[in-house]
Amino acid sequence: MPQHRMLAHAAELYAWLQQGAHLYVCGDADRMARDVHCALHEVVALAAGLDDDGAHAYINDLIAQRRYLCDVY
Questions:
Q1: Strand pairing partners for 72?
Q2: pLDDT score, position 1
Q3: Do 1 and 34 form a contact (C-beta atoms < 8 A)?
Q4: Angle (CA) 17 2 24, round 5°
Q5: What is the reported pTM?
Q6: If we measure between CA atoms, which residue out of 10, 2, 4 comes closest to residue 55?
Q7: Alpha-carbon gap, residue 53 to 45, rounded angstroms
Q8: Segment 6-64, tens digit of pLDDT
Q9: Helix 34-48 to helix 10-18 angle, to the nearest 10 degrees?
Q10: Which one of 8, 9, 23, 62 counts the least CB within 10 Å of its CB?
Q11: Residue of 64, 11, 63, 12 whose CA lies nearest to 37
């Protein structure tokens, strides 16, 4: 499951995001995409040392920059 891989490699994923990486999520909206979003929130919070509000703001910035995009069904 992608969310488990994200958490296992949280520091590396966060470093990529800090370097300008884009994250694309495609697939099941009800489970997988929701779980990936929660994992991304956890990755950002842990790797950056942010609280929930800070992680939420970081993810919203990724969305605004079109660096976190979802194509889900």
A1: 27
A2: 82
A3: no
A4: 45
A5: 0.93
A6: 10
A7: 9
A8: 999 999 999 999 999 999 999 999 999 999 999 999 999 999 999 999 999 999 999 99
A9: 80
A10: 8
A11: 63
